[in-house]
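Continuing the series of single-chain predictions for the mutant panel. This is the parent chain; the variants come on the following pages.
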Amino acid sequence: MKTVAACKRMVGVLLAMLLGLALAHAQDYPEKPVTLIIPLGAGGSHDLNARVFTSVISSYLGQPMIVRLMPGAAGQTGTAAAVNAPPDGYTLIFSHNFIDQLQQHVDRLPYDTTKALETIVRLNYAPGAVVVRADKPWKTLQEMFDYGRKNPGKLKFGHSGNWGAAMAPGAQLLAEAGVDATLIAHKGGGPAMQAVLAGDVDFTIAFPSVIESQGEKVRALAVGGDKSVLPGVPTFKELGYKSTGLEMERIVLGPRNMPEERKRILREAFQKMNSDKTYQNLMSKLGENTVLMPGPDYEKLRARQNVEYKALVGKLTGK
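Parent structure:
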């Protein structure tokens, strides 16, 4: 009996030691910098947003968060890298709803983001705006579309990539307006804006942070959302358009099979960062909101997006 009791005590001690080691290992995370993949090019709104939050979150995470720009194939290059990364919490992706949930209804992808990735947080959201170079003759959206209708195919729409955050609402808007424009893809919002400034395209759809960074070089003709976030710029809704209600949701995703404790640590760090005064001030100067949504809540919205985007692609492609 003494031997049995002693064995039980030894097993109990071993289990306690193993549990202690597991907890210690979880609490040590992160022990090194966390890589944040951005599947888009430099100079876009994701790049600008990431410069702000990665400069602040290290105070709450205990390690730097290092941005890795991986543009290509309309976001698929960076997304594939995130999907195939080890599920240890050291590789995340800063993406958006169109790359995450819309593209799968357009292309045959070598991955399934819904199964492979889970939302850590929805950082914020942004309505897109139609933007032209400031010296263009069109002062209103109506004037630009009138030109497009009279000159089929001559109006050039530069967007951030096929079925990306600019192309989807832009294609909707052009279809509703009855304008036959030429769509030209770029590797992200930054390159698309540079094409506008260079005169290579006539307009793009950009987001507040990118528009703010250009100052008086550009003019916004209309913006999405129920209420304009750009002074003096009407909303699409105010101009009578029913489409373009799509907003870009900026999301941080990680491997779905990452340890739950590491997801919790990341989410808590983002929540604390979101209350940081420095972060709030920097985002305000950038022209962005700080309406953070917890990962589990955004996962519910993500599921609805899947259904809605399938219908949207069918409407735009006739399939």
